[in-house]
Every structure is written in structure tokens, then in C-alpha cells.
What we know:
alpha+beta, 2 domains, 6 strands, nucleotide-binding, repressor
Amino acid sequence: xxxPFCRHSDSRVIDSRTSDDGLSIRxxxxxxxxxxxxxxxxxxxxxxxxxxxxxEPFSRxxxxxxxxxxxxxxxxxxxxxxxxxxxxxxxxxxxxSSQIDTNEIGLAILGPLRDLDEVAYLRFASVYQAFxxxxxxxxxxxxxxxxxxxxxxxxxx
Length: 157
């Protein structure tokens, strides 16, 4: 790590702490050459392999952007989207892989989105899973109804 003040090629770690989300480490460093102190944040890299083969860093904002379109006109707040994006990132990171394809991210979105808003889930799933016919919608709606009925029965029991 180069010192941002004198560009010396070494620094000493004074303090390390995990960040609030637990996915990164904040390190306080000191340059042995000039004595300047500075902070660094270290995160494990997570890359996304797109359908075209292009590899880019994972972005919570892109997850939120994609889900935001499905949630248009629904009672879903930006805070709800941020929580969903964090849950998706945590789920994807738990796979232990440093590279993940967009298909797996889409699958990771479906569960939390279904819990957040069933209409938004249906919109997202229809695009993501490329529904071709009314039967695809009917099947998905039937599954949602069955799951909803089971959840209501569990809470009443």
C-alpha cells in the first residue's frame, strides 16, 4: 500500500475493524517514512459474468435498479430495495465463489423479492424466466397462491 502523502511503498497497520455490514475491513495505517496516517477499506472482490462473457464487479446498485423496475407503482421503498440488495449480495457471497454469473444473481433475487412484494416478484420472474405463455403466468400465480395459503395457515395454527 503506497502512502498517499509521500508515495512510500510501505505502511504499517495501526488498527483494524470490520465495517457495519461485516463485508469489509477498515484499516488505519501509518507511513514509516513521513508519519502520515490514512485509512483503507478492504473487501473481497466479487465479479459478475454477464451473458455476453464480460466480467464486471458486483454492484448492489445494479440489483436495486433491476428490481426497482419491477416495483414501479408498488408500495416498496428505497430502503426496502437496499435491504433486498444487501440480502442478495450476502446470499451470493455465501456461495464462496469470487465469480458468479448473472443467472445465479437473478435466482438469488427471486426469493427476497417474493417476500417483499408478490406482484413485483411476478413482474420480475416473467422477464427473468422468460414467460412465453399465459400458462407460465398461471403456473406461477398458482404457486404463489399455494404458498400464501400455507403461510396464512401456519400463522393461524
